[in-house]
Fold this sequence. Notes:
Elements: E1 4-7, H1 14-25, E2 29-31, H2 32-40, H3 44-51, H4 53-67, E3 73-75, H5 84-91, E4 96-100, H6 103-110, H7 123-140, E5 143-146, H8 152-162
Parallel strand pairs: 1-3, 1-4, 2-3, 4-5
Helix pairs in contact: 1-8, 2-4, 3-4
The structure holds adenosine-5'-diphosphate, shikimate-3-phosphate and magnesium ion (MG).
GO cellular component, one term: cytosol
Function: Catalyzes the specific phosphorylation of the 3-hydroxyl group of shikimic acid using ATP as a cosubstrate.
Cofactor: Mg(2+)
Amino acid sequence: MESIVLIGFMGVGKTTIGHILSEKVGLHVVDMDEYIVEQEGMPVREIFERFGEGHFRDLETGVLSKLLKEACIITTGGGIVERKENRKLLGESGCVIHLSAPFESLWERLEGDPDRPLAQNPRHEVESLFSRRIPLYEEARTHEVDTGGKDEEAVTREILSLLGRN
Ligand SMILES: Nc1ncnc2c1ncn2[C@@H]1O[C@H](COP(=O)(O)OP(=O)(O)O)[C@@H](O)[C@H]1O
Ligand SMILES: O=C(O)C1=C[C@@H](OP(=O)(O)O)[C@@H](O)[C@H](O)C1
Ligand SMILES: [Mg+2]
């Protein structure tokens, strides 16, 4: 079976749903943020503070190209689509599921989260990042699952259904 990649904005549920999906489809899951944190031996926040966002994006590209060679579920960070190179890598993989949601519901989950450096910015900046990224997710995805108003189990069921696994 090919890889399944989850993309989407911060807080939409990629990490959470990837873990639930992993149990249901019997593929192991790798969360890119967790992988990078382990590899670098420091939290994402500290990587941003000490080395800058550009360095974190370099790490993401390296990890994504490595993981796409495995058959697994990959839960990306929300900024994976920022780099053209990453969008190209995603385009070469068969199943890229965009989890989407209205900004309002994401902001409720993100506001004040100390672990997400970009969520520390004022609301209007995070919202404009959200708007700017929408076409990038659209470019990279093969499928979209609208998570608005659905709990984690319902989102997982919808993914299983589009994979033909229900
Ligand atoms: N469908 C959902 N409905 C409500 N809360 C959710 C849903 N999916 C995830 N969450 C919650 O939102 C928060 C962010 O989820 P997370 O999986 O870390 O998102 P991401 O990896 O996309 O940034 C977590 O507290 C999680 O429990
Ligand atoms: O959107 C982004 O640029 C980021 C999203 C985060 O992952 P989540 O989408 O899992 O929060 C993490 O990779 C980092 O804080 C940057
Ligand atoms: Mg995550």
